[in-house]
Specification:
With 219 residues, the chain is of the alpha+beta class. The protein has 7 helices and 9 strands; from the N terminus they run H-E-E-E-E-E-E-H-H-H-E-H-H-E-E-H.
């Protein structure tokens, strides 16, 4: 399948706009761990995910990461074309979380498309609103939820995403997703293990009692 199957408002474009978009887009692949976009000074272009999984995160002055959202098949990443979004006041890094294929649409091409097409401009605004809603949700979680509840929610979300009770993930990686120190994650996971909620192994976490984790998350 080509770009037309992955761009949600393809049918609302004119034939000339479709041709320009298809001609400018480049299909790329990247391995897990590859940094695709590194802050506002790096305007790579728009990403349209064909396969795999990307992660968007922000980095504190102290070097701590926190995941703000993930991108899956058919998702579109606007922050990788941050130069067309003049009001963005924070730097977002995009990395490959699972080996991925994606189209890169040059920022200039997409900017011209936004200026010429009301449906594209409206769709872009919808994506922005959705992403900022995710950021606001994250801020609420960090500010108002205790860490044990946030960690329980994270483990349940990861389990659903991987469709497995056993997660191949390090404590350091969990800390990077959650914006905290590895030691904090390790301490809480050991407490969870003592309570029979999880089982810990080298490079892995197994959910031993998902029902109690859900109760903790909701409590």
């Amino acid at each position: 399948m080509d770009l037309s199957q992955y761009f949600p408002i393809w049918e609302k474009l004119t034939a000339a706009q479709r041709g320009a978009l298809r001609g400018a887009a480049t299909l790329r692949s990247a391995a897990r761990g590859t940094v695709l976009h590194n802050g506002s000074a790096d305007c790579v272009g728009l990403f349209v995910v064909r396969a795999g999984q990307l992660r968007a995160f922000i980095l504190s002055d102290e070097g701590k990461e926190i995941t703000i959202y993930r991108l899956f098949e058919r998702d579109i990443c606007l922050f990788s074309a941050s130069c067309i979004l003049s009001d963005i006041q924070f730097d977002v890094t995009i990395e490959v979380e699972k080996d991925a294929e994606f189209w890169v649409i040059p920022a200039d091409t997409y900017r011209q498309l936004m200026e010429a097409s009301a449906p594209v401009a409206n769709y872009t605004n919808q994506i922005m609103a959705a992403r900022f809603s995710e950021v606001m949700w994250l801020i609420e979680q960090v500010m108002w939820k205790s860490f044990d509840k946030r960690l329980a929610a994270f483990l349940l979300d990861e389990s659903a995403l991987e469709q497995s009770d056993t997660l191949r993930i390090t404590h350091e990686r969990v800390a990077a997703h959650m914006g905290t120190a590895r030691e904090v994650v390790t301490r809480m996971l050991r407490y969870f293990q003592s309570e029979g909620l999880v089982r810990l192994s080298r490079g892995g976490i197994t959910l031993a009692d998902a029902d109690r984790l859900r109760a903790l998350q909701a409590g």
